[in-house]
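Q: what does this look like with flavin-adenine dinucleotide bound?
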Amino acid sequence: MAIDVIVVGGGVIGCSIAWRLAQSGLKVTVFERGRVGCEASRAAAGMLSPQGEAQGPGPFFEFCLRSRAMYRSFAEELTEASGIDVEYKDDGTLFVVVEGEDEEAKTKWASWQLEAGLPLEHVSADDLRKLEPAVTELATRAIFLPEEHQVENRRLMDALEVAIKRTGVELIEGADVSALTFEPGRVTGVVSAGKRFDAGVVIVAAGTWSSQLLEPLGLNVKVIPARGQMIAVRRNGCPIKRVLHSSKVYIVPRNDGRILIGATVEYAGFNKAVTAGAINQLLNAAVELVPSIEDFEVEEIWCGLRPDTIDHLPIIGATGVATGVDNLVLATGHFRNGILLAPITAKFVAELTNSNRQPDALRPFGIERFENNLPEPTPAAYGFFR
Ligand code: FAD
Ligand code: GLY
């Protein structure tokens, strides 16, 4: 049977898109050079956190909020389709303020969100101790974001794998796509292991490796790896319930008793080393926030490469305006929010593929915006940690 759509990349973005497209009746093949989700999507912390991550109001923030609003039903549908509980947890997120920290920045951040009518609550030190007794006694207050939830992203990837297969997607793992193939005005398919595969539409969802495939088109699109190092610790009986942030670190409690500690944001190219300095700083920051973590067993350390872009916004949409090639679609550059943005990206990329019309919601994220050269991203925008 002829392939309607080829998706390059079996991360959270490629698999979610493939799932929606197959549900709409298309014959979809996913090429994944490793295992499903083996890169950033399994490395992530699974926080669904538009407010916590927000740099300010605007179309990207709105896009993130819309995806957050879709998440509960996305998770339920996926759990139903796969039989795998993706552990959607709705306990909310606490931003803890510790003695001597920049109170003003936190207050400013909370103010614009409150003025925008977003759910956010100020919590006193006493109330914080009732909510999360394990938090440091040096905490002076906290900000609670009740709608910022989390999902177990490794289980999410397991569930997506089962769901896409059950919906009829052909998933080819261990299949590196070495090139896209073109004829004038259209992409015709991909090359993998020296073999050509044709399709009506090709979607590049190859995470931080995406721009490598686009080089022959001469597109001014850069997807840049932003390394994130993480640690998982464990002890019998997890002492925290909610996702916690300090200005240096975030801590994510999982159902199985693990606590994830993250993460660095480093521009170190495609180097996937885990470094002593970063692990040391993450552990110190975690112990500062929750002192009992000192006695926890370190279970795992890892890192992943976030797909960042020059303006830190995702690149989602058809390449037609910039290249004249309408049937090539990009869905990449989700940087710190790819788990969060999977439902909305999949919805609109499926809509675009089925209608051949760019949905309005995707306009801010088209490649046209790169016509003017923008400066390289700087880590300073996010800080080394968090
Ligand atoms: P990836 O998951 O990297 O998938 C791309 C896939 O394409 C890979 O599996 C790769 O093998 C494959 N591929 C690449 N090139 C080819 C090729 N030529 N042929 C075939 N296959 C190819 N996001 C959140 O929303 N919440 C969080 O809490 C969060 N925490 C994070 C913490 C860390 C430490 C990191 C690193 C990331 C975090 N993120 C988080 C970001 C999130 O993980 C990413 O934005 C998201 O996973 C990107 O998904 P993706 O499918 O685009 O990329
Ligand atoms: N969103 C958390 C991270 O990227 O580390």
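Confidence is low (pLDDT under 50) at residues 379-386. The radius of gyration is 21 Å.
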